[in-house]
Input
Amino acid sequence: MLAPIAYLGPTQVARWRDVQRRDADKELRFAAESLSRAIGMALDISVRELTTMANQIGASGSFDRDFFRTLLHEHCTAFASCLGVFVSRPDGFPITGDPSHPVVGGVGDREYYQEMLRTQRTALSGVEIGRFTKVPTLHICAPIWSSSDVSVRALRGSVVGAIGLGYLQELTTNSVAVFGDMQARVLDGHTRIVVDSNPRGQPALTDLSAVAMYTGVPPGQALLRDGHNEQGESVRAAVARMADPRVGWTVVVMRPTWKIEEQARHAQTSTLIAVFGALALGMMFA
Output
């Protein structure tokens, strides 16, 4: 009776240690892929809402300021992440907006505005310091057309919305809070911080391109990596490229290696206690 227990005991200890590590990897990958999808959906909703508003203005045929103010105010009230929105002329110079800002210049020189002109579609910027908000912001620029008929339509202007990072920050924080010891980061195409799950962590636009852990992430399923963060701490991470090609963002969810090993040791200890208990019971019966 004691021989099987003595043989299977060490085997089970090793097995449960491996199971604990595999479970940790599954949690990391699940968190990274879930956060990637959630952020993608949030951005897509914002793009569709601004596009719908631009189409509504174009269909109305009116460029009345009072009409604009009502429409823009309703949008800002409905979307807490909206820091501001304005209607511009075809050259990117604001006509009116909500909230109202002193007009100090247009946005015709901004990359997202040039992309909108080039593609004739709604454009989404990377994270940049807003010309009016003065804080790290995402911008959405939707064209206003004079007609829905592509063959005869002319550009009458655009709707430009400034999206704050607060909502993405909250989304990122909540996505890993349930796991307790995880940290999540969203990085832009230049490997700069978009948001950190720790509100007191790295600020937006911090450059992490020198950290190998965060670079060279191919599209597709989340990858698992061992490496070091910018503080030199050993971590296990799941990295996932967001599917939306307009942003080129990467989601990184990581956990300190010592935490994973600690959980594996707990599993090992629990299994050893069970093995020794079985051995003691077997000896008593023997």
